[in-house]
Specification:
This protein is 0% helix and 43% strand. By secondary structure, the protein is an all-beta fold. The strands form 5 sheets. Strands 1, 2, 3, 4 and 5 form a 5-stranded antiparallel β-sheet that branches. Strands 6-7-8-9 form a 4-stranded antiparallel β-sheet, with no helix packed on it. A hairpin with a 5-residue loop joins strand 10 and strand 11. The chain is globular, with a radius of gyration of 18 Å.
């Protein structure tokens, strides 16, 4: 076991990532309060931990502590593709009385900036930021899945460029969850498009026709 120092009372490791340089990140959830039907607990807090020696020692990663008191707590991490590349990380975050937004770093946590969440209604109400609906591409863009413009049922893919505050609409998808796989010349989008609970169907991802089944892909950008 390499996670013994991270697991304590009401604590659970919910995700982990590995960089080409061997650095590990672990997302640790701490639950407290009284459990209620349909929820794990009354309060959940999530923090990032980092290890540079294959899990022998862990230190807190310089990131905001996320709480279910304000937003669903989880980190969106794009794993580095080279040994000299920093971590790209975003998270739905709310500081004090400020509006719900994305907190993002592109230099392994040394600096953090605020970026807007996707809004698909007027007046602006951010789309629910659940895990799998927001992902990070290798160029620093945030990709999100939400209802297509003017539709009450069709799901679409949106893109927020790294240095922009304006979301772009890329096209429709029938996927229920997105994944991004970095490649040397861009990357590949994967969409979960069916299953035992969603039903098997054909669809599209980013405007490209998707085959019937569980996974479909499209190149990015």
């Amino acid at each position: 076991p390499i996670d013994q120092s991270l697991v304590g009372h009401n604590q659970t490791i919910t995700s982990f990532w590995l960089s080409p340089s061997g650095e590990l990140l672990a997302e640790v959830m701490t639950a407290s309060g009284v459990a209620t039907p349909g929820s794990v607990s009354a309060s959940t807090r999530v923090a990032l931990w980092r290890s540079s020696d294959v899990g022998a020692h862990w230190q807190l990663f310089p990131a905001p502590t996320l709480s279910s008191d304000t937003t669903p707590p989880y980190f969106i991490v794009q794993q580095p593709t080279g040994t000299d590349q920093p971590w790209h990380i975003c998270a739905p975050y709310k500081a004090g009385d400020a509006a719900l937004s994305l907190a993002c770093t592109f230099d392994s946590g040394r600096t953090w900036s605020t970026r807007p969440l996707l809004c698909i209604t007027a007046p602006c109400k951010p789309a629910l930021p659940f895990a799998g609906q927001y992902i990070l591409a290798s160029d620093g863009a945030v990709l999100a899945m939400a209802l297509a413009p003017g539709s009450g049922s069709q799901v679409g893919i949106y893109r927020l460029p790294r240095d922009s505050a304006k979301w772009q609409y890329l096209g429709p998808t029938s996927g229920g969850m997105l994944f991004f796989v970095p490649t040397s010349n861009g990357g590949v989008l994967w969409a979960f498009t069916g299953g035992a609970y969603l039903g098997w169907f054909s669809g599209s991802i980013g405007g490209h026709q998707a085959l019937p089944g569980v996974l479909s892909t499209a190149t990015y950008p």
